[in-house]
Design goal:
The chain is α+β, with helices and mostly antiparallel strands and 405 residues long. It has helices at 5-14, 19-27, 47-56, 76-82, 178-188, 292-295, 303-310, 337-343, 349-357, 394-403, and strands at residues 61-70, 104-113, 117-124, 127-134, 137-142, 147-152, 193-197, 201-203, 206-215, 222-230, 236-243, 251-259, 277-280, 316-320, 327-331, 361-364, 367-372, 378-382, 386-390. Strands 1, 2, 3, 4, 5, 6, 7, 8, 9, 10, 11, 12 and 13 form a 13-stranded mixed β-sheet that branches. It has a six-stranded antiparallel β-sheet with strand order 14-15-19-18-17-16. A hairpin with a 3-residue loop joins strand 18 and strand 19.
């Protein structure tokens, strides 16, 4: 799935954006679905054979229903910002749906007919949000607000020099789909990963093998990753991410119904409804909305510079460790920003609430700091303006801060 970086970014905008999927892929791309007891009796395969089966799968056409559930264990203030409702409502721009999809359970219909036609429709009661890619056009439609987003899709070899000679499978633009999540997992798996074949299972009425990935290193928040693979055609049917602390999956994405027949051409046709507000998208990815979710923090004393560092604007980033234990150290240049904010009696109430949501104070040879904890990614923000972040435990972050202060 080779692609020019700029083209990949543009294509990502047209995928249904699931925030947690992006985080998982960036931090080592994880995911498991424990085998159902009494699974189907299938011929034995090795892990290498199963990986090759996935890689060789060239299914171009499918339709069905899928579900994704995300339980990051976010702080209450963050959960409130993300919203507990459905996806429908507000702007039809796909980028505006990112935060909403990082929380709760969402059901969607999916259809694909080759690399140039895909459709995802998220279902939330009587309201729907649809993302349609049909040839040169990408449409986003929000039925609740009756808003339409339209943008021209980047075409390999046509979008400047980007994408020349590249090929794309349907999963490339369906970031919420089990296929794309599985590809992200396998691409990120390396020598720090133990790969094996689990028990067989049945997913969406189809017999499946299960590929299990586990960190060899200690300190990861990820317990294991498992991909249910269609025994006949090699299509990933379900992907789950389990926490090293146990409990229900952090991410559980899979088909509940799937059909590999060619969808009707009418499936991908879209005409803006009468009276709908139509917004034309930016010509290039990244020009609009790239940092929207951080802008609200810029006004908080000391946090603006910290967020700039986290977004790579001015911060000095150093990668510590490898594989599942990778930690990024960001020197934001915010200095004593957090401590000043904590002691500032005139600081906005919202800023203090955000600070308190970061979690417990920690101390070490690096000084003092606070830990922002989720079930997947943890971040240690020190009072001298450094940020240590990764899919690792709080103790692993503290040790990294002490060794790299």
């Amino acid at each position: 799935m080779a692609a020019n970086t700029n083209t990949s970014r543009k294509i990502a905008r047209y995928a249904v954006p699931v925030a947690v999927a992006g985080v998982a892929a960036a931090t080592v791309a994880m995911v498991p679905a424990f085998a159902n007891a009494g699974g189907p009796d299938l011929p034995k395969v090795t892990a290498q054979q199963l990986i090759e089966k996935i890689a060789a799968s060239d299914v171009q056409e499918l339709s069905g229903t899928a579900k994704i559930s995300t339980d990051l264990g976010l702080p209450k203030i963050a959960t409130g910002l993300l919203g507990g409702g459905g996806v429908a409502g507000g702007s039809a721009n796909p980028e505006d749906k990112v935060a909403q999809l990082a929380n709760g359970t969402h059901t969607f219909r999916v259809a694909a007919d080759g690399p140039d036609r895909q459709k995802l429709t998220f279902l939330d009661g009587k309201d729907e949000y649809s993302l349609i890619h049909n040839g040169d056009d990408v449409w986003g439609y929000d039925s609740k607000s009756n808003e339409v987003f339209h943008e021209k899709a980047p075409q390999p070899g046509k979008d400047g020099d980007a994408g020349k000679g590249t090929e794309h499978k349907p999963g490339d633009r369906l970031a919420a789909s089990p296929q794309q999540l599985a590809q992200d997992v396998l691409k990120a798996a390396g020598p720090t990963t133990d790969v094996s074949v689990g028990e067989t299972a049945q997913v969406a009425g189809r017999d499946a093998y299960q590929l299990v990935l586990k960190p060899k290193q200690s300190g990861s928040t990820v317990g294991s990753v498992q991909i249910a693979v269609d025994a006949k055609n090699g299509v990933p049917l379900r992907v789950q991410l389990l926490s090293s602390q146990g409990g229900k999956p952090i991410v559980d994405a899979g088909f509940t119904k799937v059909d590999f027949a060619k969808p009707s051409a009418d499936t991908f046709k879209f005409t803006a409804p009468k009276g709908a507000k139509v917004t034309e998208g930016a010509a290039e990815a990244g020009k609009a909305g790239e940092d929207e979710h951080w802008k609200a923090l810029d006004s908080f004393p000391g946090l603006g510079g910290l967020m700039d560092g986290a977004n790579g604007k001015d911060g000095d980033v150093k990668v510590l460790g490898e594989g599942w234990a990778t930690i990024a150290r960001i020197d934001s240049g915010a200095g004593k920003g957090l401590k000043e904010l904590e002691n500032d009696k005139n600081a906005p109430k919202e800023a203090k609430q955000f600070l308190n949501s970061l979690g417990d104070k920690v101390t070490g040879s690096f000084g003092e700091g606070r830990v922002l904890s989720t079930r997947l990614v943890n971040a240690l923000i020190t009072d001298d303006g450094k940020v240590y972040v990764g899919a690792v435990t709080k103790d692993a972050l503290v040790k990294a801060a002490e060794a790299n202060k």
